[in-house]
Write a structure and sequence with these properties.
The chain is an alpha/beta fold. The protein has a single domain (about 1-240), classed as Alpha/Beta hydrolase fold, catalytic domain (Rossmann fold). Helix content is about 50%, strand content about 10%. Helix 5 (about 110-135) packs across helix 6 (about 140-155). The longest helix has 27 residues, at about 110-135. The two termini are about 15 Å apart.
Length: about 240
C-alpha cells in the first residue's frame, strides 16, 4: 500500500494508521508536497506519475491511496498506473479544490491566494490555522501541531507548490473516465474539502463505494485510523 499524505502533514502523521496495518501490509507513506517538489516547479502529469511509480511496492496486489492533496495526486496518476494497481483509496479528496461556475462548494480562489500570501508573511500562523480547520469539529493536539509546523517550516517551498497545485488543478473530466475499484472516505463536518466532493466523485467513478463519517472533519487519518482500515478492507472486498 502506497499512501500520499495531505498538504503540510508529514508522513509521521500517519503513525496510528500504520500501527494498525503493519502486521499485514507493506505500507509506505510519502508527502504530497515533496512529490510535487521532486517533479519540478511546473509539474507535468508524467513527472508526478514517474515519482509515484518510483515509490510503489513491488509486491502485488498493490493499492494506491491519498488524503486531500495526496488524494488528488493519486487520482491524477491512477489512469497511467492502471496496470500496476488493484484499487484506489481516496480520503477527503476532491477533483477540483476551488469554487467555480460548475460547483458552489470548495474554497474561493481569493481565500487560497490569501493563504499563499500568508505563507510568505507569517507561515507559522497560516499553518496553525490550517491545522485547526483540519481538526474541526474537534480541537487539534497542540504538541502535534507544533511538531508538524516545525517540520513544514523547514520545507516552505514545498508548501507553496502544494497550494499552487490546488489552485490550478481540475481533475473532473480526467477522473470521470477512470475504471479502477475505488473507495472514498470523507468526514461529514469537513470544512477544508466539503464531503460533497466525494459524493461527486462517487457518482462518476465506477466501481466505487463511499463512506461518510458523522461528526468528523478533514483529519480522518489522525483521528480515526479504524475508519481508514475499514475502508481498505472494503476496497479489498471489491477487488476479490
Amino acid at each position: 500500500m502506497l499512501m500520499i499524505s495531505g498538504w503540510a502533514f508529514p508522513p509521521e502523521a500517519w503513525k496510528f494508521v500504520c500501527r494498525q496495518w503493519e502486521s499485514v501490509w507493506n505500507v509506505r507513506i510519502i508527502s504530497a508536497c515533496s512529490l510535487l517538489r521532486d517533479s519540478g516547479p511546473r509539474s507535468l502529469r508524467s513527472d508526478i506519475v514517474r515519482g509515484i511509480r518510483a515509490h510503489l511496492p513491488a509486491s502485488r496486489p498493490c493499492f494506491l491511496g491519498g488524503w486531500s492533496l495526496g488524494g488528488m495526486l493519486a487520482l491524477e496518476s491512477a489512469a497511467s498506473l492502471r496496470e500496476e494497481l488493484s484499487g484506489l483509496l481516496l480520503i477527503s479528496t476532491t477533483p477540483h479544490f476551488c469554487q467555480d461556475k460548475k460547483q458552489d462548494w470548495g474554497m474561493p480562489k481569493a481565500n487560497l491566494r490569501a493563504m499563499i500570501q500568508g505563507l510568505r508573511r507569517n507561515a507559522r500562523d497560516t499553518l496553525e490555522r490550517f491545522y485547526a480547520s483540519s481538526a474541526f469539529p474537534n480541537a487539534p493536539n497542540p504538541q502535534e501541531v507544533n511538531a508538524w509546523t516545525s517540520a513544514a517550516l523547514s520545507n516552505s517551498g514545498e508548501l507553496e507548490a502544494g497550494l499552487s497545485y490546488l489552485r490550478d488543478t481540475d481533475l473532473r473530466s480526467h477522473s470521470y473516465t477512470l475504471d479502477l475499484p475505488t473507495v472514498l472516505v470523507h468526514g461529514k463536518e469537513d470544512v477544508v474539502i466539503p464531503y460533497r466532493a466525494s459524493r461527486t466523485l462517487g457518482v462518476h467513478l465506477r466501481p466505487s463505494r463511499i463512506e461518510l463519517i458523522s461528526d468528523e472533519g478533514h483529519d480522518l487519518p489522525l483521528r480515526r485510523p479504524d475508519v481508514i482500515l475499514h475502508a481498505l478492507c472494503s476496497l479489498i472486498d471489491m477487488c476479490t
